[in-house]
Write a sequence for this structure.
């Protein structure tokens, strides 16, 4: 098979590799479309080692391990590949654990459906079909689970989507136009969490189409300066008691969490950040810092606070299993959508340029995806 190996300078080498063989609990998928995420450029650049850094899989099941009963060859699926492990999504075939793989329904949507509500400044490859597209599905695995882990496994006290609240719960979502931020808006809406105090920049028109202003939701422009942004966030919650206890920072750099912490309640506030390994020492000790690591759904050692407190045998892995099936049901029923996307030209040959664009901050309210069969030589 062909596989794209991302170099530390973000150039890409296309190599020939053996098709992976599944372990007992694994699924091998013939990749139709791979998604991408900011970590896909950060890992090879920061780590200094070439790798297939892709983790968002969408395609058809090729082979399953001996313990896998939920999937069979030919099934349409999306999946979250285990980060840093062999078998990433920038290839013709990729590996995922069965519990982070989910079915893509065939009768619920059409490719590019979310394009109908987007500003014209964003361009898409959209083709109407009778099914949800694998292209749209490829935008979901890593980013949507990051949102879910941050909201429900890291922040303590937010209602789950199948048990929505009837009370006002202000929530700050910084980086609301990013995939993680936008999926957080979808999940928060399902949990009936309002008002949503969203922060974005160029993607504001997209965010405005996701929020519910009748419930107090707002979107603020960080480009207007820190002072005005902080005051805007405070103003947004005045009519709801003026107290904000929850925040999801989908950016976690360039002053984002510092601004958020000026608005959070200084005694009961919690903030979930998405960049592990950073120095967050300037966050006040009275505010609970929750570092969101999406890879926790693949690992038993990264226990969440609830597991640590109770000694429960269940935790992040089970949460991942449940949430991916929840996403699949939402796609089927129409109350959960993928993220806007742009198909990078050239299949695997387009990975390098797309990752450079991500590094340079050129993507706003859009995810780059790669159609594998557009790779030269296939």
């Amino acid at each position: 098979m062909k596989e794209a190996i991302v170099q530390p300078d973000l150039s890409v080498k296309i190599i020939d590799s053996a098709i992976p063989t599944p372990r007992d609990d694994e699924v091998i998928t013939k990749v139709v479309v791979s998604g991408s995420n900011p970590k896909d450029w950060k890992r090879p650049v920061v780590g200094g080692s070439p790798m297939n850094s892709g983790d968002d899989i969408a395609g058809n099941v090729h082979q399953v391990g001996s313990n896998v009963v939920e999937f069979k060859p030919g099934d349409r699926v999306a999946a979250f590949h285990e980060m840093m492990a062999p078998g990433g999504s920038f290839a013709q075939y990729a590996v995922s654990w069965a519990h982070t793989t989910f079915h893509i329904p065939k009768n619920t949507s059409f490719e590019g459906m979310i394009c109908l509500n987007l500003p014209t400044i964003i361009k898409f490859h959209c083709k109407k079909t009778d099914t949800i597209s694998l292209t749209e599905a490829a935008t979901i695995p890593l980013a949507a689970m990051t949102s879910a882990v941050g909201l429900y496994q890291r922040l303590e006290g937010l209602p789950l989507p199948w048990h929505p609240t009837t009370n006002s719960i202000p929530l700050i979502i910084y980086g609301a136009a990013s995939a993680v931020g936008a999926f957080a808006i979808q999940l928060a809406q399902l949990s009936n969490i309002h008002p949503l105090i969203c922060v974005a920049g160029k993607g504001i028109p997209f965010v405005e189409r996701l929020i519910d202003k009748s419930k107090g939701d707002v979107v603020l422009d960080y480009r207007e300066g820190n002072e005005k942004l902080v005051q805007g966030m405070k103003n947004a919650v005045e009519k709801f008691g003026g107290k904000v206890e929850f925040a999801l920072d989908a950016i976690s750099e360039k002053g984002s969490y510092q601004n958020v912490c000026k608005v959070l309640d200084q005694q009961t506030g919690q903030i979930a950040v998405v960049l592990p390994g950073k120095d967050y020492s300037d966050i006040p000790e009275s505010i609970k810092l929750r570092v969101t690591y999406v890879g926790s759904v693949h690992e038993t050692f990264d226990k969440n606070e609830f597991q640590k407190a109770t000694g429960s045998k269940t935790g992040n892995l089970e949460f991942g299993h449940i949430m991916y099936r929840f996403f699949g049901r939402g796609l089927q029923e129409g109350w959960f959508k993928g993220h806007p996307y742009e198909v990078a030209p050239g299949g695997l040959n387009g990975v390098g340029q797309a990752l450079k664009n991500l590094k340079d901050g050129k993507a706003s309210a859009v995810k780059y995806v790669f159609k594998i069969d557009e790779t030269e030589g296939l």
User: Anything to note?
Assistant: Confidence is low (pLDDT under 50) at residues 108-130. The first strand starts at residue 2 and ends at 6. The chain is about 25% helix and 20% strand.
